[in-house]
Amino acid sequence: MIPPTRTAPPPLAHSMNTTFWDAFQQLTLTGRLLFFTALGIAFAFEFINGFHDTANAVTTVIYTKTLRPTPAVLFSGVMNFLGVLLGGTAVAFSIVNLLPVDLLIEGSSSRAIVMVLSLLLAGVIWNLGTWWIGLPVSSSHTLIGSILGVGVANSLLSRGDLTGVNWNKATDVGLALLVSPLVGFMAAALLLQIMKLIFRNPNLYHPPGEGDNPPHWIRGVLLATCGGVSFAHGSNDGQKGMGLVLLALIGFLPAYYSLDLRHPELAHQLVDAATEIDNTLAETETQTPELHQELDQIKTLLADRHDLSEVPSDHRWQVRQSIFRFRTSLAAARLPADVSARIKPQMRDFQHAIEYVPLWVVVGTALALGVGTTVGYKRIVVTIAEKIGKSHLTYAQGAAAETVAAMTIFIADKFHLPVSTTHVLSSGVAGTMWSNNSGVQPQTVRKILLAWAFTLPCSMTIAAVLFFSFGSMLGNGTTHLQPVGQVSESATQSPVIAPSVD
Cys-Cys with 50: which of 39, 373, 467, 480 at CB 3.0–4.6 Å? Predict the structure, then answer.
C-alpha cells in the first residue's frame, strides 16, 4: 500500500510490459515525425563533429607525408568508430546531467520537444558555420553551450530563475575545457624539448621538403599518435553524441527509457539496495526524512515486481525520479566517509538502473562519427598545419602535439570529463611552434581565441533564441504528442502531496 503521505497515480491503460514499439505507437503522427527529426539532428551533429574534428588527428600525418589524405582520413574514421564502441558511457552522462533530464518532461510534452530540437539545431548551426570559415572550434564547447542555453531559457520561462541547470556539473565541465588547452600547450612544448635532447636528427625539426619521406620510426610514431587521437576523440566526443540521443529518447519516450529494461533482475536489486541503504542510514543516525521518503517510494513502487518491464509505465518514471532526487539529497547531506563507503555498492545499482545507453545508440553514434570523419577535413587541416605557425609542421612537432592530445583525452576519459580534442590539439601545435622558435601567426591565433571565447555565449544564445522561436510557433499545439497512457502528469511530478496552487 502507498503510504498515507503519498498519492498513487491513476492506473494507465496498456502500461504493463511496455516495449519500444508500444511506447512509440503512443506518440501521435506529429510526435513520431518530430521524434525522427530529433534523432536525425542528433546523429547529424555527430556526423558534423566527425568532419569538423577530423583535422585534429590527420593534420600531422598528412603534412609530414606519413600518409596520403585518403588513407589518413579512412584510418582516422575507423579508429573513431572503434573509440565510440569501446570508450564507455560515463562522459555521455556528464553531458546529460548538465541539464537535469527531469525538466524534459516536467511540463507539457511540447516544451520537451522544443528543448531537444533547439539544443540540437544550435549545435549544428554553430559547428557548420565555424567549419565553413575554417575555424577549429570545440564541438564540446558548442554542445555544452547549447544545453545551457535551453536550460536557462526554460528555467526563466517556467520558474523565473536559473535553477533549471546543473551549475555544479557545468562548473566541472567548464573547468576541464579551460584547463585542457593550457595542458596541451605546455606539455607539447615540453615534450618537443625532451625530444630534441634525445633525438639529434635535424631532419625531424624542419618542415618536410618536396620528395622527403620521414624516417621509419617517426612514421610509426605519427601513425600511432594519429590512431590514438582518433580513438580518444571517438571515446570522448562520441559519448557526447550518445548524450544527445539520450536526451531525445528520454524526452519523447520516457515510459521506455526511464529505467534499464534490459536487465530484469534490477527490480529485485533496487528494492534490496533501497532497503540496505535505509537500514544503514538509520543505523548510523544519518537518515533524514527526505532520504527515507525517496527510499520508501522505491521499495513501494517495486514491491513484488520480478521484472522491471512488469512495472507500470508511470511508476517507472516515479522510480527514476525517486532515485534522481535521492542521489541529489544524498550529495547535499554530506555523509561521513565511512557511511558513504558502506552504501557505495547499492548506489551503483541505482546508477545502473537509470544511466545506460542502448546498443543501437552506441553503434549509430559510432557510424555517424566514423563516416563524418572521412569528409570535409581540408578546411580545418589547412588552418592547423599552415596558419597557426609561421612555418609548416615538422615531424617532431606533429608527434609531440598528437601524443599530448591523445594522453590528455584518455586521462579526461578516466575522470569522466568531456574535453575538447580541437582545443587540446590546436594548443599543442601552438606550443610546439613556440618551443621550436617557429613563431606563431598572431592573426590566426587571435581568430581561434575569439572563436573559442564566443563559442559558449553564441551557442547559448542560438539555442535560447530557437527555444523561444519554436515555443511561439508550436504554442500548445503539441501538448498531446504523448497521449495519456505513456506518462501521466502526476507521474512527472513529485509524489509527495502538496497544496494545489492556481
Answer: 373
Using CA atoms, how far apart are residues 23 and 486, in angstroms rounded to an integer?
7
Shortest CA distance to 165 belongs to which of 97, 250, 252, 90? 97
The conformation of residue 390, written as its DSSP 8-state character, comes to: S
d(CA 98, CA 463): 15
Of 282, 296, 281, nearest to 340 (Cα)? 281
Closest CA to 158 of 483, 494, 468, 457: 468
137/452 Cα distance (integer angstroms): 6
- Residue 391's contacts (CB-CB under 8 Å, 6 or more residues apart) are 207, 433, 438, 439
The DSSP 8-state label assigned to residue 374 in this structure reads T
Number of structural domains, the chain?
Answer: 2
Give SS3 for 461. Answer: helix
Say if residue 82 is in the same domain as residue 195: yes
Assign 6 to helix, strand or coil.
Answer: strand
On whether residue 410 sits in a domain, the answer given is yes
For residues 40 and 46, what is the distance between their CA atoms, to the nearest angstrom? 10
Distance CA 173, CA 169 (A): 6
DSSP 203: G
pLDDT at 300: 93
Q: What is 248-316 written as a DSSP string?
A: HHHHH-HHHHSS-TT-TTHHHHHHHHHHHHHHHHHHTT---HHHHHHHHHHHHHTTT-SSGGGS-HHHH
Same domain, 171 and 244: yes
- For every residue of 77-88, which 3-state class applies, written as one string? HHHHHHHHHHCC
Please identify every stretch of the chain with a pLDDT value under 50, giving residue numbers as ranges: 1-16, 105, 107-108, 385, 387, 476-502
Residues 106 and 180 in one domain: yes
Task: List the domain range (segments joined by +) for residue 328.
Answer: 266-354
Nearest-angstrom CA–CA distance, 6 and 495: 6
Place of cell 539529497: 329
| pTM of the predicted model as reported, rounded to 2 decimal places | 0.72
User: Tell me, what's the pLDDT at 298?
Assistant: 93
Torsion sign over Cα 130, 135, 139, 145: negative
Asked if the structure places residue 165 within a domain, the reply is: yes
Claim to verify: residue 188 and residue 284 sit in the same structural domain? no
pLDDT at 292: 92
